[in-house]
Amino acid sequence: MDADSYLAESSSLVDRYLDQVVPPASESPARLHAAMRHLLFPGGKRLRPALAFAGCEAAGSPAERALPAAAAVEMVHTYSLIHDDLPCMDDDDERRGRATVHVAFGEAVAVLAGDALLAQAFEVLAGGPAPADPERRLAAVRDLSIAAGSRNLVGGQADDLAFRAGEGGAGAIESIHQRKSAALIAASVTAGARLGGGDPALLERLHRFGEGMGVAFQIADDLLDREKEEACSLVRVLGAERARARAEALLEEALARLEDLGERAEPLRELARFAVRRNR
Ligand code: GRG
C-alpha cells in the first residue's frame, strides 16, 4: 500500500458518495448547486477523506464505514477554500486548476455555495446511511464543529488575515497553522475512527497524531508555495532548511503516536509521510 494508490481509491470512494449527497446542478436553485459542485468536482488530492478512511481502518473497521465522515470533511475543506479565495480574503482567480467559484459564479453565489457546503456537511455526517451508533455520530459531529469553529479553522483564518510579518515568531505561526489547517486534519482522522468504533485511548492518540502531522503538512505547503511569500510562513522566519527539519521532526513525533498499532495503522503512516514530503 502506497499513499498514491490509497489516495486514488479514497477519491473514487468519496467522489461517488459526494455525488449522491450533494444536490445535482439540475436541482433548483441550479446556479447555487452548480457553484457548490464547481470546486468539489473533480476536486483536489482528497487527503482529508483518505485520512478519515485510514482512521477508520486504524480502529479496525473497513474504510467504507467512514464514508459520511470522509464526505463531510471534504465539504468543510471545500467551503473554506471557496471563502478563502474571495476578494475580501486572498482574492485568488484560480484554485484546483480552474477558475475560483466567485470568478465563475459571482461573489454572492460563492459566499452562499460555501455556506451551504458547510451546513450540509453536518447533515451528511449526522444522517448518512453507513451504520454507526448515534452516540458515535454525535461525537463525530462535535469533533468537526470544534475543528471548523472560531477556536480552530475560522479563528486561525482570522489571525492569519491579521498577521503582519515581524509581529510574531515561529510559535505564533505554528499556532495559526495548528488552528487553520491541523485541526481539520486531526478531525478527519478522529471522525473516521469514531465511525470505525475506536475507543477513547485510540481517539486521543489519533487526535495528537493528526495535529502534529497537520502542522507538518502546512509547513510542507509553505515550502511548496515559497514564491507566494506569505507573512504567516515558517519558511519566512526559519528559512527553507530549518522549516523542512521542523516538519520532519513533527512527522516523527506524529508517527511515534502510532507505535504498537501494527498493520492497521499503515495507511495513516503512509499518508502522513506523503503529506509532509509531497511535491503537490
Ligand atoms: C475561509 C474559514 C476560512 C478558512 C480558510 C483553507 C484555508 C482556511 C485557507 C486556504 C489556504 C491555505 C494554505 C490553507 C491551509 C490549508 C491548506 C494547505 C489547504 C490546501 O489543502 P490541500 O493541499 O488542497 O489538501 P486540495 O485542493 O488538494 O484539497
Task: Characterize the structure shown.
The mean pLDDT is 95. The chain has helices spanning 3-21, 30-40, 47-58, 67-84, 101-105, 107-127, 134-148, 153-162, 170-195, 200-224, 234-238, 240-256, 266-277, and strands at residues 94-95, 98-99. It is built from 13 helices and 2 strands. β1 and β2 form a beta hairpin. The longest helix has 26 residues, at 170-195. The two termini are 19 Å apart. It binds geranylgeranyl diphosphate.
Keywords for this entry:
280 residues, mainly alpha, Farnesyl Diphosphate Synthase, two-stranded antiparallel sheet, 70% helix, binds geranylgeranyl diphosphate
Summarize the structure.
With 280 residues, this protein is an all-alpha fold. It contains 13 helices and two strands, in the order H-H-H-H-E-E-H-H-H-H-H-H-H-H-H.
